[in-house]
Specification:
Layout (H helix, E strand, L loop, with lengths): L4 E5 L9 H7 L4 H9 L3 E4 L2 E2 L11 E5 L20 E2 L3 E6 L16 H12 L6 E2 L8 E7 L2 H12 L4 E9 L6 E5 L2 E3 L7 E3 L7 E9 L3 E8 L6 H8 L22 E9 L6 E5 L4 H9 L2
Parallel strand pairs: 8-15
Antiparallel strand pairs: 1-4, 2-3, 2-4, 5-6, 6-8, 7-8, 9-14, 9-15, 10-13, 11-12, 13-14, 15-16
Length: about 300
């Protein structure tokens, strides 16, 4: 299996730092350093093994090679085709098909994205377990981020907390919306009578959803949606709250006359790469079932 590794060229402003200080600045924890030391990882300067007390000099090339991650033996590897619009040594962007769980559950123990990723990693000789940065509901299609290592996942988690990962969705909602754009600010919490369903409630967590209309149709509206927060079922709950549940979303009042799942698609993802810091923007076309609804009512 190919190990996960990071490489830096040392510049003048880092000259004189101990390796452990430099790596602390890069948010590699003491726990990670212990794991590297005792479980088969390596720290090299100019391809020579060193300790974390080595004093770095300008021009040094520092390599950190992490031990391979061991996937859970409880999760089955499954040969399921994946749509991967972007991949590098640190992350993948997956365009998830509808009716696929992100991770296995009691109701759906197989056929998940996680099962497919483990098989893909084995075929590609990637020594990693599954680190999904932003999950999507089973019936929601579209883009999500997968980190190839817990270190990259940690950096993405910081971006999530600072709302630096931007996502837009497209949805088809019942009724003709009277406002062309707006913001829904309504706290969301779990419904007392359900372990799955959420609702707007005073004691819920803050939830903010922005929407604008793409096109009105006779019986429904095509909208673009972006999130400031990431609550479970946020778009579905908020749109139902204002009287426009998603087509197909029978959990929150939608009807399945047009489509047999909630008509929700993760359309775009943008973020700064956690390692290279370049801006990444990925866009995904609407899936065929949502396109069909639009074409039939055009």
């Amino acid at each position: 299996m190919q190990p996960f590794r990071l490489t830096w060229e040392i510049h003048e402003h880092d000259s004189g730092k101990l390796v452990k200080e430099f790596l602390k600045d890069k948010e590699i924890s003491k726990t990670a350093l212990t794991d590297i030391k005792f479980n088969g990882g390596h720290i090299l300067v100019n391809h020579v093994p060193i300790t974390v007390r080595y004093e770095l000099k300008k021009g040094d090339i520092l390599h950190v090679v992490f031990p391979p991650e061991v996937p859970s033996t409880d999760m089955v590897k499954e040969n399921i085709p994946l749509n991967i619009p972007y991949e590098d040594d640190y992350l993948l962007i997956i365009n998830k098909q509808p009716y696929m769980s992100t991770i296995p559950s009691r109701e759906h123990p197989n056929g998940s994205l996680a099962n497919a990723l483990l098989y893909y990693y084995e075929q590609q000789q990637i020594g990693s377990t599954v680190h999904i940065v932003n999950r999507l509901d089973r019936d929601t299609s579209g883009l999500l981020i997968v980190a190839k290592h817990r270190y990259t996942h940690h950096l993405f988690s910081k971006q999530q907390k600072s709302s630096s990962i931007k996502r837009t969705y497209e949805a088809l909602v019942h009724g003709v919306m009277s406002e062309n754009k707006g913001t829904i600010k309504a706290p969301i919490g779990r419904k007392d009578t359900s372990i799955i369903e959420r609702e707007v409630r005073e004691d819920g967590q803050e939830a903010i959803t922005h929407f604008h209309v793409i096109q009105h149709y006779k019986e429904f509206t095509h909208v673009s949606v972006s999130l400031e927060t990431g609550r479970t079922h946020q778009i579905r709950v908020h749109m139902a709250h204002i009287g426009h549940p998603l087509l197909g979303d029978d959990l929150y009042g939608g009807k399945r006359d047009f489509i047999t799942r909630q008509a929700l698609h993760s359309r775009t993802l943008s973020f700064h790469h956690p390692i290279t810091h370049e801006k990444i923007l990925i866009t995904s076309d609407l899936p065929n079932d949502m396109k069909k609804v639009l074409e039939e009512r055009a």
